[in-house]
């Protein structure tokens, strides 16, 4: 799957977001001019600029600097915290990502894996797509023998509204390369990821 994408998006229009938030405040029957709400449109505009910063970053740039290394065993970064906004309600979902890969002559700094998760999470998202994108960008950027990703998250759109089931955790996974072809490799990854809970 081709993951590269053009990044011709303009910078965030803070004034336009703030104007829209003022209209929402009025539409729910509140006064956008009262002291507690007067700065809310600006604050939400700043929040959206931060939460959607990943729209203006190319994830592949993070993976350009690699290091030659003959290590051909599993490399795993567990418990990477992330925060994202569900594109269906613009309500947060948050949790942890566990990312593993088997190098093929090149490794990448661990911080770049965490940064990749962060960049992809800071977009309007669904967890299933986020999980696949992490795996696909690592496959494209590193050309490893394989990649495995597990993401665990709580979604406030079902915790605080709708079905109202706080504490429910959605788990998604994506496997590529040797992780897909070898049950032993996949089981080793999952066992090591489960170790994060013990």
Topology diagram in text:
Elements: H1 14-27, H2 40-51, H3 59-62, E1 67-68, E2 75-86, E3 92-102, E4 106-107, H4 110-121, E5 124-125, H5 127-142, E6 146-155, H6 156-159, E7 170-177, H7 178-181, H8 183-194
Parallel strand pairs: 2-5
Antiparallel strand pairs: 1-4, 2-3, 3-6, 6-7
Molecular structure report:
The protein has 198 residues and is an alpha+beta fold. 39% of the residues lie in helices and 24% in strands. The chain has helices at residues 14-27, 40-51, 59-62, 110-121, 127-142, 156-159, 178-181, 183-194, and strands at 67-68, 75-86, 92-102, 106-107, 124-125, 146-155, 170-177. The protein has a 5-stranded mixed beta sheet, sandwiched between helices. A two-stranded antiparallel ribbon has the order 1-4. Helix 1 packs across helix 2 (40-51) and helix 4 packs across helix 5. 31% of the residues are buried.
């Amino acid at each position: 799957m081709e993951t590269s994408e053009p990044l011709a998006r303009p910078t965030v229009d803070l004034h336009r977001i703030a104007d829209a938030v003022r209209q929402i405040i009025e539409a729910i029957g509140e006064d956008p001019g009262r002291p507690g709400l007067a700065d809310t449109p600006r604050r939400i505009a700043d929040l959206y600029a931060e939460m959607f910063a990943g729209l203006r970053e190319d994830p592949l740039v993070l993976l350009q600097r690699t290091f030659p290394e003959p290590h051909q065993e599993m490399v795993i970064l567990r418990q990477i915290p992330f925060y994202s906004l569900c594109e269906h309600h613009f309500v947060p979902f948050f949790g942890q990502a566990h990312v593993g890969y088997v190098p093929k002559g090149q490794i990448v700094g661990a911080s770049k894996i965490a940064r990749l998760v962060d960049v992809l999470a800071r977009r309007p998202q669904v967890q299933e797509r986020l999980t696949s994108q992490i795996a696909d960008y690592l496959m494209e950027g590193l050309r490893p023998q394989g990649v495995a990703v597990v993401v665990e998250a709580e979604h406030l759109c079902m915790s605080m509204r709708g079905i109202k089931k706080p504490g429910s955790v959605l788990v998604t996974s994506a496997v590529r390369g040797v992780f897909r072809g070898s049950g032993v490799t996949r089981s080793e990854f999952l066992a090591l990821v489960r170790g994060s809970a013990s």
